[in-house]
Amino acid sequence: MSKKLSGKDKQFTRKMQVRINRIDEALRELLAELD
């Protein structure tokens, strides 16, 4: 991975991270309900 990340790339990475975290939380809640 190159160290030269533009502001847009950093924003995109952060957005993806937030999205992944939200999906992860939703999955955990679903699994908890199924238990």
What does this molecule look like?
Helix content is 80%, strand content 0%. The protein has 35 residues and is mostly helical. The chain has one helix at 7-34.
Mean pLDDT: 92
pLDDT under 50 segments (min length 5)? Answer: none
Number of strands: 0
The quaternary state of the protein chains shown equals single chain
Percent of residues in helices comes to over 70%
> Which structural class is indicated by helix and strand composition?
mainly alpha
Shape, per Cα inertia axes: rod-shaped
Number of helices: 1
The N- and C-terminal alpha carbons lie at a distance of 40 Å
Order of helices and strands: H
Task: From the alpha carbons, calculate the radius of gyration and give it in angstroms.
Answer: 15 Å
Strand % is under 5%
Largest sheet: none
Task: Give a nutshell description of this structure.
The chain has 1 helix and no strands.
